[in-house]
Design a protein that fits this description.
About 20% of the residues lie in helices and about 25% in strands. With about 130 residues, the chain is an alpha/beta fold. A five-stranded mixed β-sheet has the order 3-2-1-4-5, with helices on one face. Helix 1 packs across helix 2.
Length: about 130
């Protein structure tokens, strides 16, 4: 009988600087916090916190995400954070405010929303 090896969770201790990737859509807000090399430390979404339906895309849900992540990051020793924001949702700024109010210094705000240079071909002209 073969025994399955248990994968131990990676322990990140004393991470000074972290990068928060905020993806904010109209329906949800997703935040993942990584090290500068790209290893995910922690992540959270509004669905994980118990919000359902249209309440997941609200700024209040995004504030709750930010404060939840800030508590987890304080245990890991994160003092400053860079924020990459993506998407048109209303929760973008609320996450940043929650980080700042919890005592984590926000050093850089970056908007990484993809913009089309010329975009897709438009639909054909409508004939009536």
């Amino acid at each position: 009988m073969a025994y399955k090896k248990k994968n131990k969770k990676k322990q990140f201790k004393n991470v000074e600087l972290a990068v928060a990737h905020v993806r904010s859509t109209f329906n949800n807000t997703l935040v993942s916090v990584t090290t500068t090399s790209g290893d995910v430390i922690s992540r959270c979404s509004s669905g994980r916190l118990g919000f359902k339906g249209s309440r997941k895309g609200t700024p209040f849900a995004a504030t709750q995400i930010g404060s939840t992540l800030a508590k987890e990051l304080a245990d890991l020793g994160v003092r400053s954070i860079e924020v990459n924001m993506q998407g048109p949702g209303s929760g973008r700024d609320s996450v940043v405010r929650a980080f700042q109010s919890s005592g984590i210094a926000v050093t850089m705000l970056r908007d990484v929303t993809p913009l089309p240079h010329n975009g897709c071909r438009p639909p054909k002209k409508r004939r009536v």
